[in-house]
């Protein structure tokens, strides 16, 4: 293995304020309550900034600002709205390096990922939906599709700016206005986005950002002035939201958890499959709702594949997320680390065999080494529950029918991957897997033109592509 000299990205490009207010009606305002929380760098536990905690009165102020902006924004010709979205997309590209460093500082993900995956996709989403803004009449939702009104959007911490883009870009393109709540551990890029809205001269009130905890999210989704709720996060909270909105007129999309199967057949190119497995579960420390957290490998090649996988994992570098050579960054929070540890210990206690490469762990911050469990039974918690960390559970199968049976044996249904050289087998599998996305000889590929969303307890509604417009239109 090569030795790498440190190659840290400079953090001088970001300018983090010591304290942030709420972004309401195009301005920074102070919350009514006194409460503030610190956001930390999970790689060092250093405090980055203090953010405001929005209470019900603040959420109400934000929703009212969005409601006031709605008549003007929705009546604007699509081509005019598109100009704002194109402008936002271009500013994101211009400030991509700064936003990538900020995301890495606040989230713990490697700079290589925030720079090469998150930020290009964020800009691409705004460009893509900017293109739809003046073509909504041709999107297949009737000759004159109308926006819904105020969208209340709640997002998680694993892809903070990318989830913001998935939510805000289609909402604005369709003529809705927005109140968005970022996750409590990763508010900084959403607050930087508020500045970008100002830079783009977006009319006041079209985008409002309220920071806070789960209660802030609950106040937003339950606010009577919100016409549409979009949520990405845990199935548990998704269920709460679905329950509280049942029977009322609010439109709801839920993007929830997953326990995806990454299925490798004996005829697959094994070296390529190893890369796909690594990308499937160790990308973004496994904090990915569609992560390939269950490896299903055909018994005849299981030993060879596992040997190659372990060899490959021995070359992954864990450490400073700002270092351009880092593959595995920090776990986003102490709570998430505790959850990953608890489930990994349950895996061992239930009889699975645990393996990690020799991997020095930094003294400060939240870290978990890449981990592989073999000898996993379908009944084990590590085969059933979303771990949301760099932990892979390996199961084997003999026939395609058994692979389908095992892959679908989960309450979730967000994604799956199939590795085989046979096109017929690929299609046979894809038509039987109960998953919203099925990747063929690849994994964790995203594109703004492709719809993304789940079956079963992974949620409902689609984000991305033409389908993603539907959630924001009265159709
Ligand atoms: P949550 O579902 O709790 O958080 C997602 C977002 O919802 C956050 O902004 C959160 O705020 C907010 N929220 C929390 N409670 C409520 C509520 N009652 N009403 C409205 N909004 C609310 O996920 P966690 O961050 O707690 O992570 C827990 C687990 O969820 C993870 O271990 C992982 O398994 C899974 N998860 C799945 C994701 C996915 O993409 N499928 C994404 C994130 C997590 P706040 O951050 O302030 O709590």
From TrEMBL:
Belongs to the aldehyde dehydrogenase family. Keywords: Oxidoreductase. CDD domains: ALDH_F16. Pfam families: Aldedh. Transmembrane segments: none annotated. This is Aldehyde dehydrogenase. The keyword Repeat does not apply. SUPFAM superfamilies: ALDH-like. It comes from the Bacteria. The active site is at residue 255. Residues 28-474 form the Aldehyde dehydrogenase domain. The keyword Oxidoreductase applies.
């Amino acid at each position: 293995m090569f030795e790498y000299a440190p190659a840290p990205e400079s953090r001088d490009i970001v300018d983090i304020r010591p304290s942030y207010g709420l972004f309401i009606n195009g301005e920074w305002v102070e919350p009514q309550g006194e409460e503030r929380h610190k956001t930390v760098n999970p790689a060092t536990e250093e405090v980055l900034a203090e953010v405001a905690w929005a209470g019900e009165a603040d959420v109400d102020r934000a929703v009212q600002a969005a409601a006031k902006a709605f008549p003007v924004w929705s009546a604007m010709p699509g081509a005019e709205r598109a100009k704002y979205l194109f402008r936002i997309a271009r500013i994101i590209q211009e400030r991509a390096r700064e936003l990538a460093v900020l995301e890495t500082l606040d989230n713990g993900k490697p700079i290589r990922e925030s720079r090469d995956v998150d930020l290009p996709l964020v800009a691409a989403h705004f460009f893509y939906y900017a293109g739809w803004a003046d073509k909504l009449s041709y999107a297949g939702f009737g000759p004159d599709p109308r926006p819904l009104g105020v969208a209340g959007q709640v997002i998680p911490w694993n892809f903070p700016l990318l989830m913001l883009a998935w939510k805000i870009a289609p909402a604005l393109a369709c003529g809705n206005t927005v109140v968005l709540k970022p996750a409590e551990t990763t508010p900084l890029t959403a607050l930087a986005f508020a500045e970008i809205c100002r830079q783009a001269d977006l009319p006041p009130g079209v985008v409002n950002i309220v920071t806070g905890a789960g209660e802030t999210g609950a106040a937003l989704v339950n606010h009577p002035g919100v016409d549409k709720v979009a949520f990405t996060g845990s199935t548990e909270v998704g269920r709460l939201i679905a329950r509280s909105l049942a029977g009322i007129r609010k439109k709801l999309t839920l993007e929830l958890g997953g326990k995806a199967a990454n299925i490798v057949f004996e005829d697959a190119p094994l070296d390529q499959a190893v890369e796909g497995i690594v990308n499937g579960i160790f990308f973004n420390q496994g904090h990915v709702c569609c992560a390939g957290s269950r490896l299903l490998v055909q018994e005849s090649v299981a030993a060879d594949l596992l040997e190659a996988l372990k060899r490959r994992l021995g070359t992954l570098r864990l450490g400073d997320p700002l270092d351009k050579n880092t593959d595995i960054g920090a776990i986003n929070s102490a709570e998430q680390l505790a959850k990953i540890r608890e489930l990994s210990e349950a895996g061992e206690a239930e009889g699975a065999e645990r393996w990690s490469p020799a991997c020095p762990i930094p003294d400060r911050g939240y870290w978990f080494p890449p981990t592989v469990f073999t000898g996993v039974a379908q009944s084990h918690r590590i085969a059933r529950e979303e771990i949301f960390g760099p932990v892979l559970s390996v199961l084997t199968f003999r026939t395609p029918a058994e692979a389908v049976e095992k892959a679908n044996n989960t309450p979730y249904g967000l994604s799956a991957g199939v590795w085989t050289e046979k096109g017929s087998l690929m299609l046979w599998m894809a038509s039987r897997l109960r998953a919203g996305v099925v990747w063929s000889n690849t994994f964790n590929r995203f594109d703004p033109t492709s719809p993304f969303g789940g079956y079963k307890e992974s949620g409902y509604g689609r984000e991305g592509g033409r389908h993603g417009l539907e959630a924001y239109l009265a159709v």
